[in-house]
Amino acid sequence: MLYVDVILPLPLDGLFTYSVPTELEGKVRPYTRVKVPFGITKTHTALIVTSHTEPPQCDFEIKSIITILDDKPILLPEQYRLWEWISHYYMAPLGDIMQAALPHGIKQEESYRPKTEVYIRLTNQYKNEQSLHNAMNMLARSPKQLEVFTTYLEMSGWAELQQRNEITREELINSSHCTTAQVKALVDKGFLQPYDVEVGRLNSNEEPHPERIKQLSEAQTTAFRMLSNTNSQTNTEGSKTTVSPTLLHGVTSSGKTEIYIHLIQEAIDHGEQVMYLLPEIALTVQMTNRLKQIFGNRLGIYHSKYSDAERVEIWQKQLSDTPYDVILGARSAVFLPYQRLGLIIVDEEHETSFKQQDPSPRYHARSVALMMGRWSNAQVILGTATPSAESYYYAKQGKYNLVELKTRYRDIQLPHIDVVNTKDLRHRKLMRGMLSPTLKTAVINALRRGEQAIIFHNRRGFSPIIECHQCGWSPKCPNCDVSLTYHKTTAALTCHYCGYTYHMPSQCPDCQNPDLRDRGAGTEKIEDMIIDELREVSDHLRIARMDLDTTRTRNAYERIINDFSHGKSNLLIGTQMVTKGLDFAGVSVVGIISADTMLNQPDFRAYEHAYTMMTQVAGRAGRAGRRGLVILQTSRPELPVIRQIVHNDYEGFFNSLMTERRDFRYPPFTRLIDIYLKHKDNNVVNSAAIELGSRLRQCFANRVLGPDRPSVARIKQLNIRKIVLKLEPALNITQTRRDIRRCTDALLEDIRYKSLMISFDVDPL
What we know:
Number of helices: 23
Strand content: 15-25%
């Protein structure tokens, strides 16, 4: 008998074995989908990994697959190899990888429907000259229907009995200025016949225009040649050798994208595919327009804001004989099929958005891309103005190649950064709102000159805390250990962890005092305050806000960015979304409302993230023409990191950061694995965490920290404990994970912990 080992789209470890009915044995292929029973009544769409004739050693009945859903594999062998690596490295079940990788329409055999369009043709009885004359006579008393029919004959070529053109119903309606009902009348009378044609959802019309590629500057040319030479190394047999990844460290607006475009064209000329990763969907809006002008229908876009049907069609195209040469996408693009991958670009490689947080698998797209490059002998380029500490360390150690661009394109100066001491201003009563006099004046002058400004504040909503002025009552989430954030536009208090919403009360529920005051500010409140503080230029003021609340729909990013790019708005207020490599020529002023919000986080990466975000948002100023101005507001201007930002001293910042990381044994000098335990009962999760910590110490000694309560110790009614492992990079990865699994599996065998949930975050951010 034939058996298959399959992956089920469930958070379960390992493969599952099913038998194959005799009549289906000839159809079994690796990486095709099958419908299988699971449990008493459920069925799932599973993925065949391998087939064999050896019966499994078990004391229960092996179930049979129900049917085979595919004639051809939906996965390449290289993709499954990558799935296995992600599962092993990030300690995630293969079922979680399958859930994350495949579009929903592929995971469920009945959920995907091809897109169709209605076309119109003549019925068979009117396909000759005499019958057409008869039809015209019959329609003489219905002049509008006759007009529609005549228009169809002209458009299709039947009027001259020449070549037949296929006509859509929509084209006919538009050309004849008729209604759907009038076309239907011709169908009902038997003159015309509708029929469906499957059409793709993907762009396929724009021709490539490589002649539009811009000429590089001298500095860009030097960098391009260094990258190109690295990419083209071959061995004595003439095949490509495995090359080290390259870190392209270029200051903001140094022209890294133009270098990427030249490298992409070079890869296409060599018959290779390119994967271009960006950290945020917002970035793909600008980059899509830029790349489409050059690469046309060779470019495919892939990210979560696309409909599932569109993602299915991209997946299918990538498996076809004519896949896209270039895929531009967010982190999920690493899961697409690539048949001849030759170049991988990870732009803004420092960005935390490349790390999947929840749900599992908690992979980092940069690490996955590096592994893909190693296996496919593809060149991997990590580009950024502010490298992650780990990437720059590896470049300094020689593990990565390093190419640097130290000047802006066309020698435009980096922006001047003016540090404003908000503590001193408030003490002297010179600053009452969120804008210092310096920032307020700079924004007003910019708007009056017809220029644009960006205000950066890394907190959304109106206010993070509402408090009763009399008794101190403050609304808390009933499901999580966090305060509810007030959103003025919805008049609601919302939990940003579980989504719980509570209508804003008119008075305190405890003491009935109506004096409820907001503490702190989010982007929504900043917007209100700016409107009030800039009343004197209200005629010039056109505000746009970009945060999670304003960009929930697919087209929201595009609308906000396009409006700002074309001057329909001139003041953009936003969270970290506005720091991520956006290119706006008209921005002359950038305001950083509060550096302290980022610097005061209880996280060893806080200063790294703060340096990165502030340097990146500063780089949005003065990208074309005059030198930009950045106003950085902080109550602690004496901090070395502030000085390093002002002087664009990444090297000095990196050196001080490495000293701290080495002293306290943090990455890149160690590898971290966070282990989370969750349970509804606080006593149960506390007991389990203590016991697991004890077991882990038997294997890893003082490398175990905790268990501790995280800063948010209850989410969605689940109590949380956290254990951190600090592991030397030299430790054997396979043995380390085996030891961790042995400890957690032994814990879960205890009946007290049958409902306990344990998850792993490898290389957390």
